[in-house]
Amino acid sequence: MAEFSTALCNYNKSLLYVYPHLRARELPIEVMKLFKEGGLLRQEGHNPQFSNNSSSYLAKADTPGLIIDIFVKETPHVHDEYDGALRSGGYFRRVSIPRLVDSGTLLYQYFPGRTASDVRLSYVLGGRKDGGLFEKLLEIELVKAGDTLRAYRRSLCRLMRLYYPPKIQRFFYDRLLNDSRIRSHYGEGVALGGQLIPLDTLLSLRWIINGKTYPSLRHAYGESQDILNPRSAYMLSSPIAFGMGDAHNGNVMINESKTERGAADILFIDYEVAGLHPVMMDLAKPLYNDLAYEILYRKLIPNANGIDLRLKYDVNLEENTIKISFKPQVDALTQALFDIKFRYLLEPLCDHLQYIGVIPDNHVPVLSTALFLCATLGISFANNEEAFVANFAAGQILRGPQTWRELLSGLEELGFTH
InterPro entries recorded for this chain (predicted)? Predict the structure, then answer.
C-alpha cells in the first residue's frame, strides 16, 4: 500500500501542467494587445453578489476579425489566480484559462451565465415553485460532485510533504492570526438583544445552544489555531489532494441556454487558492456555503421568502452567557443538495481514503474546524443580528465533531436527515 501511495504521488506531480485539451476556454492572444492599447469597450451590468475578494467588469473586443466578450478581473492575488487556473487545467475540464497582462489584470473569455448561487436566489425569491430551477440546481451539484471527486481520485496522496503553506490557509489559519479577521468584522462590537457587546466580551461569552454548553469563542479560536497550524500533527498527517479550495456555488457558473453532451454547461471560477492542500479543508467552503446558504446569505432573502430558523436567544452579561434555541428548517432543495454531496462526493471519497490506507475519522477535526471558521469568519454579519447568531450557533455545533458519525449528528441538529 505504501508503494502504491508513493507511486501515485509521483504520478500526480506530473499532472500539474498537462491535459491542455481539457482547457475548454482561453482567449485569443490578440486580446492582450487590444487591452494594452485601450481598445476594449467597457460594458455595464456586472454586479456580483456572492464574491467580494476582487473587482471585475465586462468588456468587448470589436475589431475586424475579432468580436469577443471579455471578463476582466483585478485582484491582489493575481499571480495566485493565474497559477491556480493553469494548475486547475490539469484536473478540471470546466475551467477558463486567463491571459495575464502587464498591469496585473486577468482577462478571461466571457461565460454567458449566472452563478449557481444566483440561480438559487431566483428559486428562493420565486417562492420555491420553479421545478426547472430546482432540477437545474441539482444537475449543477451532480456535475460539481463528479468533477471534484475525479480530481481528488487523480491527485489524492496519503502522505505528501508540502514545502510551503497551501494557499487555502488564507481562508482559515491566516484569519486566526492576531484575531485579524474577527477584529476587522466586529472590532467595534456587535449588537445583540438590544445591547452593544464589545468584542472582548463577545469572545469570552459561554454559548449554550439547545441546552448544550459550548466553549467561548476565545477558546474555540485557540483550539482551531492549534489544529490548523501548518506544523500541527493534524496538518502534517492530512491526506493531500488537488482542489479548487473555494468551489461553493457562488464560484460555479451555468449557461442556462446551453447543454454540453446532455449535461449542464458549467464553469468553475475563482482559482486564487486552487492547488494541492488538505482534502478536508477543500471540502469546507462548498459544504458550509451551499448547505447553510439561507442563513449565510440571510441579508439577500426577505423574511417572507426565508426558511423558519426557529431562533431565539438571550445575552446575559452577568452570567457571561448567550443562550440560544436554534432548530432551523431545511427545504427540499437544500436537503437534496446535502444528499448529493454525501452520496456522490463524501462517501466515495471516504472509500478512496480507506483504499489508500487512510482512516477518514482521523481527519474529521480538520473539516469540523474549517466549517466553524466558514461560519464565523467568512462573511461579516455586523449589520444582521439574526444572521450573526444563526451562523455562529451553526459554527459552534459543527466545530466539535471528531468522527463522521458525530458530524452527521451535528448536521441533523441543523435540520438535515441522513
Answer: Kinase-like_dom_sf
